[in-house]
Amino acid sequence: MNLRPSELAVAFTERFGDKPAGIWSAPGRVNLIGEHTDYNDGFVLPFAINHSTLVAARPRSDRTVRVCSTFAPDDVVLADLDALVPGSVEGWAAYPLGVLWAMERAGYFSPGLDLLIDSSVPVGAGLSSSAALECAVAVAANDLSAASLSRTELVTIGQVAENEMVGAPTGIMDQSASLLGEEGHAVFLDCRSRESRLVPLDLKGVGLELLVMDTRVSHSHSTGGYAARRRSCELGAELLGVPALRDLSVRDLAEAAGLLDEETFRRVRHIVTENARVQDAVDVLSGKGPVALGQLLNTSHASMRDDFEISCAELDTAVDTAVSAGALGARMTGGGFGGAAIALVRSGDSAAVADAVTRAFADAGFTAPMIFPVLPASGAGRVA
Ligand code: ADP
Ligand code: MG
Q1: Which of 34, 94, 162, 171 has the least C-beta neighbours within 10 A?
Q2: DSSP string for 89-115
């Protein structure tokens, strides 16, 4: 709903009869470049965005959790912290309760809590509303329990919650961006070592912004396409004798071509070249600056469209139209088969680019896209 912290505090008091002890916030994220590289032990370059999830929280003297979200206002979920186990919670409450469960399993006691959640991160648009929710609850519970977990430990708590309580086989990218992001920076993350470092991404300072173009085509990680790509990558690594595709470089591709069937080779080529593009993007950002990113975004999209085959007509239309209308570069982002594309645009051109994409969707008979700008924002923390 996009409530301000003071408005959420009022709503909390109405709902639970007493003021919250504090309000915490965690952002969604956009992945600038590095798609499907995470589960190949590779590199990604996401950034925290200026859309976030807020949680108002108050500790209780018992072991009960009451959690409510403006996303489903009539649904107050009650849980006993001592009875939480994977499979015991269904629906959206598995994310916040999963975080508390994961903290306790890691040996950190959480008090009972009253929680009220509100978010300005659109759900299912590829901006990771799920990690925003997990990380907001994680920083709140961390502060209220005095567990003093580090940011990287909280990344793992969020991942465990999502993997085991929600049952989604996701990596650490989303939580890392939400917890480690800084305003004007992207998070360069090595998914093997879990090491990360901030890279300057001051879009505003150079008159740029990033448009998110949500195609409204629903994507789901449970659909066969995602699992099939993971299998192709595992097969490629096995046939080429490496622990993960991360261990190959662009120079190895010529030899790989002779050892793999044509389709598996193209899957491998996407991952290997995409990993190189993430590293090139980091170099570009540390040197020439964000204006020079455009070409890398365009080649990333072509690789996902032609080699990895995870794009769709709506994503291609968004990307092609944005570039024709003046974007410096564009690519689909997220798992693919729908979801969102991003376009790097000069601030003065963003309305024209958005209009052109909206018109192209209408002409093609597609559902109207949802288009909005995002900027690199700071990571999770207490806001009131
Ligand atoms: P996304 O790409 O947005 O992360 P996911 O399917 O991974 O998509 O996560 C979306 C799910 O997260 C929602 O279906 C819901 O269960 C939960 N969720 C996200 N935001 C909220 C919120 N504000 N309140 C309650 N649940 C939420
Ligand atoms: Mg998610």
Answers
A1: 171
A2: --GGGHHHHHHHHHHHHTT-----EEE
In degrees rounded to 5, what are phi and psi of residue 285?
A: -70, -30
Give the up-direction half-sphere exposure of residue 92: CA atoms within 13 A in the CB hemisphere.
21
Rounded to the nearest whole angstrom, what is the distance from the C-alpha of residue 241 to the centroid of ligand 1? Answer: 38
Q: Ligand 2 center to residue 130 CA distance, Å?
A: 4
Tell me which amino acid residue 217 is. Answer: V
Domain spanning 5-200+378-382, CATH architecture: 2-Layer Sandwich (3.30)
Contact 323, 330 (CB under 8 A): yes
pLDDT at site 222: 45
Cα-to-centroid distance, 308 and ligand 1 (Å): 26
Q: How far apart are CA 201 and CA 209, in angstroms?
A: 10
Q: Whose CA is nearest to atom 14 of ligand 1?
A: 92
Q: Where are the domains of the chain?
A: 5-200+378-382, 204-374
Structure tokens at 285: 């950002």
Structure tokens at 310: 């995870």
CA distances to 31, 304, 322, 343 from 336, in Å = 12, 9, 18, 16
User: Low-confidence residues of the chain, pLDDT below 70?
Assistant: 219-223
Q: What does the alpha-carbon distance between residue 290 and residue 123 come to, in Å, rounded to a whole number?
A: 28
Q: Out of 41, 114, 118, 174, which one is annotated catalytic?
A: 174
Q: How many CA atoms lie within 13 A of 263 on its CB side?
A: 6
Cβ–Cβ under 8 Å, residues 177 and 34: no
Instruction: Round to whole Å and give the CA distance between 246 and 313.
Output: 29
Give the tokens for residue 89: 């919670």
Q: Is the CB of 115 under 6 A from ligand 1?
A: no
* CB 166 within 8 Å of CB 94: yes
Evaluate whether 5-200+378-382 and 204-374 have a shared fold: no
**Best residue among 92, 159, 370 to mutate for probing ligand 1, ranked by most atoms within 8 Å of CB:** 92
Give tens-digit pLDDT for 212-267: 999 999 866 546 888 899 999 999 999 999 999 999 999 999 999 999 999 999 99
From the CA of 54, which ligand is nearest?
Answer: 1
